[in-house]
Every structure is written in structure tokens, then in C-alpha cells.
Design brief:
Length: 194
Amino acid sequence: MKHFRHDPEKVGQIAAHYRAILELIGEDPDREGLVKTPVRAAKALLDITEGYSQNPIEIAGQAVFEHEGSKLVIVRDIEFYSMCEHHILPFFGRVSIGYVPDGKIIGLSKLARIVETFARRLQVQERLTGQICDLLPKVMPVKGVIVACTAEHLCMKMRGVEKQDSKTTTYDYNGVFENDASLRNEFLLSIESR
């Protein structure tokens, strides 16, 4: 379990805004169940947006190793939780990453950390997918990267169109995946098989 350190001044400032929001929607922030809510909500917001304080290039660069021979590396079903920048509501799902090494590989857990760093920011799914895809070529030589992301968005389930079974899938890829449909298909078949 993660334990985040919170700057008390920042928590206090955010909590004051949450208290004002509670009043604006017609709640009494002094009632028993809500007295500590502004501080709890402030800490939660700082936790779920922790990615702003992290450098994904530094994180990824800590575990790059020499390796010859792998044709395709896939880490699939990395779960994530993020916040939609349009409504400040959660969206969540799974990301699968594939890459073709070019003399180097990255520690597998670093791929999950990359996802986490970008997901813990206000996001849209399309940008999240692209940021993950674009990062690997910045930290190591690769012949190509492909990323698939499938997510459920509470902004579509709780408000607006209220479609409970909707899911969104986004893909991004570069390098050899751009011109090699068979390689893209190999990745897609791999992540779809259970």
C-alpha cells in the first residue's frame, strides 16, 4: 500500500476549496459526517494526481539493460486509475504495451510505473495512450512500440448519456508497427487471448 506525504499547506488550501464546494451544493460542512471530508478529499486528490510530481523519463531510465535477441516484448493488462480532465471523474481500465527491442530492454515493472505516472494526472484516454507509446523511444533504442488501452469512463456512466456498458479502446504505435500489419496483429492477438 502506498503512503503519500502531503504538504500540509497545500492540503489546507485544497480543503478550503472543498469546504466551499460542499456549501455551494447545499451541504453543511460542519455536520458530523462531513467535518473531515474536505481534508480527506484534498489528500485523495493529491494522491490521485501524484503523476505531476514524477518524471517518467527518469523512472524508465533507471532500468534499461543490454539484451540481444527478443523479437517482441509484451506486458499486458496493467491496471490503471485516472481522472478525466473534462469532468474530474474517474476512468479506469487496462493498458498493454508491446515493443521490439533494439539491443536494450527495460525492466518490466518500469512499464507499469510509466503507466501509473501518466495515469495519475488529469487525462484523456487518447493522450494517455500516446504518452505511454512516445516515452520508450526517448529512454532506449527500440524498433517500435505499440500500446492498447481499454477503459470505462464514469463521465459516460454517471452523467450525460449514462451508458453503463460502454468501454473505450485506444491504440497508438510507432516504428516497425506503423508499416507491419502482421506485427500489429501478433500484438493484438496476444493481448486478446486469455
